[in-house]
From TrEMBL:
It is a single-pass membrane protein. The chain crosses the membrane at residues 6-31. It is found in: Cell inner membrane; Cell membrane. Belongs to the ATPase B chain family. This is ATP synthase subunit b. CDD domains: ATP-synt_Fo_b. HAMAP family: ATP_synth_b_bprime. The keyword DNA damage does not apply. Component of the F(0) channel, it forms part of the peripheral stalk, linking F(1) to F(0). The b'-subunit is a diverged and duplicated form of b found in plants and photosynthetic bacteria. F-type ATPases have 2 components, F(1) - the catalytic core - and F(0) - the membrane proton channel. F(1) has five subunits: alpha(3), beta(3), gamma(1), delta(1), epsilon(1). F(0) has three main subunits: a(1), b(2) and c(10-14). The alpha and beta chains form an alternating ring which encloses part of the gamma chain. F(1) is attached to F(0) by a central stalk formed by the gamma and epsilon chains, while a peripheral stalk is formed by the delta and b chains. F-type ATPases have 2 components, F(1) - the catalytic core - and F(0) - the membrane proton channel. F(1) has five subunits: alpha(3), beta(3), gamma(1), delta(1), epsilon(1). F(0) has four main subunits: a(1), b(2) and c(10-14). The alpha and beta chains form an alternating ring which encloses part of the gamma chain. F(1) is attached to F(0) by a central stalk formed by the gamma and epsilon chains, while a peripheral stalk is formed by the delta and b chains. The gene is atpF.
Amino acid sequence: MDATFWAFIGLVIFLGILAYVKVPAMLGAALDKRSDQIRNELEQATKLREEAQQLLAEYQRKRKEAEVEAAGLLSAAEKEAAQLREEAKVKTEEFVSRRTAMAEQKIQQAEADAINEVRASAVDLAMKAAENLIGSKVDNKVSGSLFKSSLEEFKKQLN
């Protein structure tokens, strides 16, 4: 009997002891327990992944809603700004037209005042010239007759 035979016998005895102590059942139970644990972890990971996908879809929906709302707000703000620009333009044009009209009225009034002043100066000058001319050429007798004729003409105009 050689050593190989005794090694084989030792191996068979060792395997018998392992089977008697129920090591294969313990190994199977440990492997089953480990497979159950891995299965549970996979199920949890699947649930977490589904929840993450739902959250992602919800956040994408909220983001799209926020973008639509922001676009609406931007559009409304642009419309309001355009309306305000138009109102400001109209008010500015009205203000300019009122100021132009006032300036034109002031110019017309200044022209009328200047014309009246020139007329008054011309009348004063003509009266002084006539006074000087009449004073130098007319004596008391002629001035009395001129006064009477002017007075009669004035009375006729009053009637």
